[in-house]
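Q: Predict the assembly, please.
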Amino acid sequence: MSELVHLLGYSFVQNMLLAGVLVATVAGLVSRFVVARSMSFAVHALAEVGFTGSVGFLLLGLSPVLGLLSGSFLVALIIGALGLRVRERDAVVGLVMAFGLGVGVLFLSLYGRYATEAMALLFGAITAVSQGDIILMVVVAVVTIAGLAVMYRPLTFATVDPIVAEARGVPVRLLSILFLLLLAAAVAEAVQVVGVLLILTLLITPGATAERLTSHPGLATLASVSVALLATVGGILLALLTGAPVSFYVTAIAFVLYMGARLGAPALARLRSRGANSAA
Amino acid sequence: MRNDGRKPRAAGPRGVPQPPDGPAMCFDLATLAYGDRVVWSELSMTVPQGEFLAVLGPNGSGKTSLLRALLGLTPLASGSLEVLGRPPRRGNPAIGYVPQHAGFDRDVPLRGRDLVALGIDGHRWGFGRLSRDDRARVESALEAVAAGAYANEPIGRLSGGEQQRLRIAQALVGEPRLLLCDEPLASLDLRYQQEITELIGGWSRDKGGTVVFVTHDVNPVLGYADRVVFVVNGRWAAGSTDEVLTTATMSNLYNAPVEVLRVRGRIVVVGEASGAGFDIDEPHHFPEPAGVHHR
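A: Predicted assembly structure:
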């Protein structure tokens, strides 16, 4: 415990935790919509081509974090332009992902050296992120949260009830594209904590766990953000204490929370109906 | 495809004093097409406010397109359309919309009352919390469709009839003057069909609201419809049920021998074009009428 207090005194640890909190908030909010819109495949494509972008930027001597953002934004635009309908989307996402990763392999071989920064992105290495990149992460997170706050209600309508939403004048197509762009930012953020290969732990698990716990939309969003925060902050702290990778702890905590919700939900429902009966 | 001389004249407003913004809808030689494919052409029909219009015809004949035109989602290829005295526009708050029942996913985190609340503020930007007034409106909308008992249940766990009741509450919570319903009875059993039709018809009767009710089967709405429009193969006929659903009119419309039977208060349309009978309840089995250009 005293070791933890000691660690928390370092400014780089504080910055990392701040970035972790913001990333987790973004991931928790976005995750609700990723689950409801069945977009886990798209999340993977955004992350993998983000990896290609970061290697590309390294080749040019630029910031890999900026490369990550550029790569996933590019994919978001391509998916937005080519495949918004669900059936189309899977095919478009698949081919963009394969080609994008192919380009990444080429970049890696051109880079020649062992690309530590890029490889770190595969499994996540928030501990290796520079101070400048942390500032960039904070800025992107704040913009993403603000964007989601503005879109929240019509996006919810368009997600759960697209036909009626369109009839009521909600710009369903525009919202799909805007959400893809926000998702690209969220993915680029989360990749730095858990890595490309483990991205779904922050973008699927929180939303999926929340759905198990409640059907109240506001509470579900709160639960989703809480799961993401617990996993991210808990993961960072445990990693600092033990020296094991952050991504291991984040995925482990997320997994445990999901299983807990899954197994605990029936008990929760029983409890609730008992409460309702005794109140009646 | 021209309809000259084939269609019964649309009945005019029946002397009911109309609110200042004119009829609920007025189609004038309206043609709707997707690219080269004409869905229906030169539709002319005026529906006064307070009427119940049933839109009939087989699948794919452009019934839903008619609703999309009224909603301002699909522009006409030619002709004109006015809704409550103005051109159609997206997001018109005077229009409520009830879609076909398509079951919600079991796990969608949305309760019945949340669905209804989306009818008030779902289109507004921002995070949003309902005001006290809006919450009261949600409550009274739930009450009006007798959905209070299951308003807090996850919507995906409710029966089709319960979901459709909530849909109606969602459409009516914004106090529309025009209610568009797209096959609201599809895949519901008979009891729910009657309940849902009575909710919609009762609203029109009590509030003087106008209903456009798309259905492939006229029978559930026979006691409610003031007027019907039947669309098939790009052509149409409009008027009262008795004017349109006759052997002469339907044969004209299909350009093939069609017989309209009234059996125990039900209307059955039987075609003999292919030698086999078909029924208006079974739109998939309509034979292609010989000699009529399809769509």
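The mean pLDDT of chain A is 88. The CA atoms of residues 205 and 254 of chain A lie 6 Å apart.
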